Amino acid sequence: MRKVGRPSSQETAFDRSLALKKSALDLLSSGSSGKVTIKDIGREAGVTTAMIYYYFEDKDDLLRSAIEYAIDNAFEHFEKLSQDIEHPAALIHEWLRTHEELVEALTKMMKLNLDYKMGKDRTERTDEAIQRFYDSEKTILLDCVKKGIRLGIFAEVDPESIWIVVSTFLDGAMVRSRIVDGFDVKKAIAALEALIWSQLDYQGKNFALPP
Predict the structure, then answer these.
(1) The pLDDT of residue 166
(2) pTM of the model
(3) Which of 119, 32, 106, 114 is nearest to 69 (CA)?
C-alpha cells in the first residue's frame, strides 16, 4: 500500500525534503515561529500537509531539520572555499567569507535558534544540532590559530580568546543585520578580520606559508 503523502516517481525524496527544509527555514524565521503551522509551511512549499508528514514526524522535527540544513550548507560552502588551502590565516579568512556570503541563511538560522532557545519545547536532537555548529566553528578557529603559532606566523596568543571574540562577533553581526536597516555586514566582517590580524600580529595580506 502506498504511504499517505508519498511523492510521485517524477520527484526525488531528496529534492522534496530539501524544498521543505528551505521553506521551513524561510517561514519559521520570518516572524514568530510559534505561530507558524505545518499547513503554513506546506502552503509555502506548495505541498500538502500529508506530504510533509511523509518526510518529517512533526513541526519540531522540521524545525530541527531546517536548522541542520542551514548548518550543513554553511560548512559545505566553507569546504568549497577552503579546498586545498593550508595556510591558517587563509582558512580564517574563508570562514569569515562564508558568513559574508551566506549572511541571509545564517541570520535565519540565528533567528530559529533564538526562538527555539526561548521556547518551552526543547529536544535533545535540536540541542545537539545547534551545539554542533559552534563545536565545529571552535575546532576550525582553534586549529588555525594553534597552527599559525606553531609555524611562527602568529603571535603567542591565547587561541581560546581569539575563538571567543570571532564567534561572538559573527553571531552579533548576523543578529544586527536583522535589527538595523542598512547594516553593512561585509564592512563589519572586514573590520573583524583587521582586528584578528592585529591581535595575531599578522599582516593579513600574504597567505604564503613560510619555507
Answers:
(1) 97
(2) 0.83
(3) 106
